[in-house]
Design brief:
204 residues; mainly alpha; 8 helices; 40% helix; 0% strand; flat; binds heme C
Length: 204
């Protein structure tokens, strides 16, 4: 037989446990909020109605003739890969250095290699699983296209290739462009491209 004290204890315990699980019910009063910090404050949410502004909109448009800090993007060659006439720039506006190439390689292997393959032959892992195969980057046409065109493909995508503007910031787009040039050269090099001291080690 259970002792009375044990029965009382178990009853209380089960009441406690059961009520602590009692959640998700609508209540009239707001929950007790011991330390409110700055959790509730008068503010507007995006897209909310405003009774303050005449047009009733909380979100304001930029004042005419102004540009937000850092949004000027005056250097159109750098930001759009084009010149004033709208033609693709021939040369990468970012000076190509070893760290830039390394960064380009790093980003290429992450963002482009899944489709284009690590060497740019268009045989990436995604293609082996059935994605539309991209062209090899080692065809003459793509060897000759402007650096600006390459930048534009990353920024805006092209035909079946999606845009990578959100994943890849401007500097990295140029770094990848520089790296693709190195990759193209690596797959189409002449013996004269190899430093003389190591030419002997290469099998022709
Ligand atoms: C999801 C797969 C995929 C990824 C990732 C991808 N590409 Fe592509 N890419 C394609 C496909 C598919 C095409 C062929 C597009 C067409 O002609 O329809 C293509 C075409 C291209 C071309 C040729 C454009 C031309 O003028 O014909 C270049 C250059 C290129 N991609 C560069 C890149 C670079 C650089 C990256 C990484 C930032 C990248 N791609 C990432 C699928 C991809």
């Amino acid at each position: 037989m259970l002792k009375l004290s044990k029965v009382i204890f178990l009853t209380l315990l089960s009441v406690f446990v059961l009520t602590s699980c009692y959640r998700g019910q609508p209540k009239k009063k707001p929950p007790i909020h011991l330390i409110p910090d700055m959790d509730s404050q008068p503010r507007y949410d995006a897209q909310e109605y405003s009774s303050f502004f005449q047009d009733g909109s909380t979100m304001r448009t930029p004042i005419q003739g102004t540009v937000a800090l850092g949004e000027l993007k005056e250097d159109i060659a750098y930001h759009q890969g084009k010149d004033e006439r709208g033609n693709f720039v021939k040369e990468n506006p970012v000076p190509v250095t070893l760290p830039v190439l390394r960064r380009g390689q790093d980003r290429f292997d992450i963002y482009c290699a899944p489709c284009h393959g690590r060497i740019g032959d268009g045989n990436g892992i995604v293609v082996k699983r059935g994605y539309l195969p991209p062209p090899t980057l080692h065809q003459d046409r793509l060897r000759r296209i402007e650096d600006g065109h390459m930048y534009d493909v990353i920024k805006n995508g092209i035909r079946n290739m999606p845009s990578y503007a959100h994943q890849i910031p401007v500097d990295d787009r140029w770094a990848i462009t520089a790296y693709i040039r190195a990759l193209q050269r690596s797959q189409n090099a002449a013996i004269d491209d190899v430093p003389e001291e190591i030419r002997g080690k290469i099998k022709k």
